[in-house]
Amino acid sequence: MIKTTNVNINSSGGSVTIGDKANVGSIIDGRCSGSVETEELNPPLKVNTFDVFISYASADRATAQALATAIERRGYKVWFDRELVTGDQFVLVINAHLAAARWVIVIWSRTSIESQWVLNEAEIARRRGVLLSARIDDCVPPAPFTLTHTPRLDNPENDGDVTLKQLLNRLGSP
Fold first, then answer.
1. Which of 1, 9, 100, 115 is the most buried (most CB within 10 A)?
2. pLDDT tens digits along 13-61
């Protein structure tokens, strides 16, 4: 049975509920709300809102983990796909967390610029107005992401890293 479900996203707290077979394109309609066609799922997928979703290519997992750790040390709640568990419907889980994030940090690299997953997540974040970007090599992010300031993140484990400081500053208070 297909039905239309309203999805409300409260960036200051709460939760996001998305049913099975979510249409990603409709999740991004509007910054804080939209509607999505779903098949009934008993129970629907619920996730808590959090501060940061990290998008990256699997080859860059060590950098994503280091960045997540650096951000979490400062009191922010971070989600990236390391938290997927066996049996999860990963498309639904990722999309629900992407919709629930206050900010999305995309780690651009020679590998991630070719990843359809990263490109899709970056586009959703861009349309929501919550995209933050960092490069970890000398890649050039694809259009339209070249229009977003994308400084080089040299060492997310170093508190003195200029780009890490810029990202943390942009996140605001946890």
1. 100
2. 444 444 443 444 433 333 333 333 333 333 456 677 789 999 999 999 9
What is 49-171's CATH superfamily? Toll/interleukin-1 receptor homology (TIR) domain (3.40.50.10140)
pTM for the model stands at 0.73
Return contacts of 79-86, CB within 8 angstroms, 24+ apart.
79/50, 79/52, 79/53, 79/54, 80/53, 80/54, 80/55, 80/56
Strands 131-135, 101-108: parallel, antiparallel or unpaired by DSSP? Answer: parallel
Closest CA to 99 of 71, 129, 125, 131: 125
Report how far residue 140's alpha carbon sits from residue 145's, in angstroms, rounded to the nearest whole number: 9
Task: Work out the burial of residue 134: count CB atoms within 10 Å of its CB; fewer than 13 is exposed, 13-18 middle, 19 or more buried.
Answer: buried
